[in-house]
Specification:
Elements (H helix, E strand, L loop, with lengths): L5 H10 L6 E5 L12 E2 L9 E2 L3 E4 L8 E9 L13 E5 L11 E4 L4 E3 L2 E4 L8 E2 L10 E3 L7 H9 L4 E5 L3 E7 L3 E2 L10 E2 L2 H11 L3 E8 L3 H13 L4 E5 L10 H7 L3 E5 L3 E2 L5 E5 L2 E6 L3 H20 L8 E5 L10 E11 L2 E6 L8 H5 L3 E5 L11 E6 L6
Parallel strand pairs: 5-6, 13-16, 13-17, 14-15, 17-21, 19-23, 22-24
Antiparallel strand pairs: 1-12, 2-11, 3-10, 4-6, 4-7, 5-9, 8-9, 18-20, 20-21, 22-26, 23-24, 23-25, 25-26
Length: 402
């Protein structure tokens, strides 16, 4: 089987992804959820003309030149002045308070000299420091689109719009199974030929950062029956996507393709023209996706970032696609072969430029290097040699929230 280009592999993986269902959540726990429906304001903000500063509410016609006015009361946020302002009068007012009837201008307190109930004010521009009714938004304004992540600012906006609950996409359910006789869980005794499992934890963390739920199915030995039973458990539980790590190559102990075939999974691709992560499998059974990640730790995390995060975003109905960012190279890069390369690098700002500094060693087993990685520099197939200072594209190792 020939190696599939990365873009084509991603397009196949996303082609059948349908957004999850809708559920209502309280505004207090809506952060970083994805809106399932557009939202409109249920009220006008501000609901009345308000003062933007502490000072005195006056009539513009009274302050066309320096003058003296009589203070007849005060207004604060939540405690308006109930009377009407007439010619020659002023009301002491505080930020956020409704303007009294008859007032249309604010003179800030720093510009006022007060003696008892009399103030001396300078000439002031009409409408100064007044926030008109509806300056922010009006009832019925459509302000939040479906498919947008509820960032802190959007949560605050939804609350100000008058919504106690919001319609969001159900979090996609991913089930993760690590496979390999050599694996033990952190804290367990490590045999002479064993290593500590890490892929399941890193992949789960990546998925949660992308807005999904991640269920860890644990570690299965290289036993076809045990792997099949674990995956069947995830299928029956209704996982939107089942993710495995390890067992995707062609060795005598790699059973994943056979197990998936027994489950009725129709394979979409196997082997990608990328580095790290060539042995990546994808298939579908009905609306459930099955993704077999490589067993090498760096390969698993990189593939999770490049394939599982976009799948999670598609299942959430996120509208905006992630696009690679741009920087300049911090060192020379050799010419590339037929595989698209994702080079681990540190990102810095130098002389006002974003500079990507690729690490000298890129082995797909080196988690210590990945732990220092900020970005993955994208080197297309057959890219020519590039010198330090030349432009490059990169993908952040951490998924974007929007």
């Amino acid at each position: 089987m020939s190696l599939l280009p990365v873009d084509e592999a991603l397009a196949r993986l996303l082609s059948g992804a349908k957004p999850t269902g809708t559920e209502q959540v309280g505004i207090a726990v809506a952060d970083l959820r994805v809106l399932a429906e557009p939202m409109a304001a249920t009220r006008t903000q501000p609901p009345w003309a308000t003062s933007a500063m502490d000072g005195y509410a006056v009539r513009a016609s009274d302050v066309e030149s320096d003058t003296s006015l009589r203070v007849i009361g005060s207004a604060a946020a939540g405690a308006r002045f109930d009377g009407t302002l007439n010619a020659g009068e002023a009301v002491r007012i505080f930020t956020g308070a409704p303007l009294p009837d008859g007032a249309d201008t604010i003179v800030i307190q720093e510009n006022v000299a007060r003696d008892g109930d009399t103030i001396r004010v300078p000439a002031t521009e009409a409408g100064r420091f007044v926030r008109p009714r509806g300056m922010d938004f009006s009832e019925g304004d459509a302000l939040l689109d479906a498919g947008r992540v509820l960032t802190p600012a959007r949560v605050a906006l939804a609350a100000a719009m008058g919504h106690a609950t919001v319609p969001v996409r159900r979090k996609p359910r991913f089930a993760i199974l690590s496979t390999g006789d050599e694996l033990v869980l952190p804290g367990e005794n490590v045999g002479p030929d064993q290593i500590v499992a890490s892929n399941n934890f890193g992949v789960a963390a990546m998925l949660r950062m992308a807005g999904a739920e991640a269920t860890d199915l644990g570690v299965a030995p290289d036993d076809r029956k045990i792997i099949a039973a674990k995956l069947a458990q995830a299928v029956e539980a209704g996982a939107d996507a089942v993710v495995t790590t390890g067992g995707a190559s062609v060795g005598d102990h790699d059973h994943m393709q056979d197990v998936l075939a027994d489950l009725g999974v129709e394979m979409g691709f196997w082997k990608i023209a990328m580095r790290p992560g060539k042995p990546l499998m994808f298939g579908r059974r009905g609306e459930q996706s099955f993704i077999g990640l490589p067993g090498n730790p760096v390969s698993a995390i990189v593939c999770a970032r490049l394939f599982l995060v976009p799948l999670a975003r598609a299942l959430l109905g996120v509208q905006q696609a992630e696009e690679p960012d741009h920087a300049v190279l911090g060192r020379e890069m050799p010419e590339n072969d037929h595989r698209q390369d994702y080079v681990r690098a540190r990102l810095a700002i130098e002389n006002g430029l974003h500079v990507a500094h690729p690490f000298s060693r890129q082995d797909s087993s080196m988690l210590a290097t990945l732990g220092r990685t900020d970005v993955l520099v994208v080197r297309p197939p057959h890219a020519p040699k590039a010198d330090a200072g030349e432009p490059c594209r990169y993908v952040s190792l951490l998924p974007s929230i929007d």
